[in-house]
Amino acid sequence: MKRAKLILFFVLSGLLFNACNDDCDCNGQMLGQWEIADFVSVESSTYPKDDNYSPLIEFNRDSTYDLALDVNVCGGEYSLSSTDSISISSAGCTKICCDSEFSKKITTMLPRISTWSINGDELRLTVDGWGWINLNRVSK
User: Fold this and answer.
1) Model confidence band, residue 16 (pLDDT cutoffs 50, 70, 90)
2) Which UniProt keywords are listed (predicted)?
3) Angle ∠(90,115,44) on CA atoms, nearest 5
């Protein structure tokens, strides 16, 4: 009986350990700096991206993010609750001047993002009922 309990304990511990590792691996995939390439929604043409500049977002190991817009810089927090679910806080930004309408729209959409997926060096952040934001990895 004791042997059966020990075996059950080790099996359950292994399953729990593997579940934790899956979440950590996903977080590791998100870490690093990403260029915000574009977004796809019915509003895409309303908020054109400046061809000379792409906003950058960096996901940090401590579950914070840094966002570099055209002029201003922002920061906030994010959390992953499953293999594809993400929650991003509203960005706290400096108010120097003159960010593009594209950058402003990205900033307002961050808290509405619900899921994410990575394919190689491409990250897609999805907003239910609106569309998605495409990002390209700059550095890890």
Assistant:
1) very low
2) Signal
3) 75
Query: What is the CATH architecture of 2-139?
Result: Beta Barrel (2.40)
pTM for the model stands at 0.79
- Rounded distance between C-alpha atoms, residue 96 and residue 58, angstroms: 20
What the block records as the tokens of 24 is: 């950590």
Measured at the alpha carbon of residue 17, what is the angle toward residues 125 and 76, in degrees to the nearest 5?
35
Which of 108, 133, 101, 106 has its CA nearest to residue 37?
A: 133
Here the tokens at position 32 are: 């690093």
Domain boundaries, the chain: 2-139
Helix (H, G, I), strand (E, B) or coil at 135: strand
Residue 47 sits at φ, ψ, to 5 deg, of -125, 70
| Cα separation, 87 vs 30, whole angstroms | 13
Take residue 51 and report the two structure tokens written for it. Answer: 């061809």
End-to-end Cα distance, the chain: 49
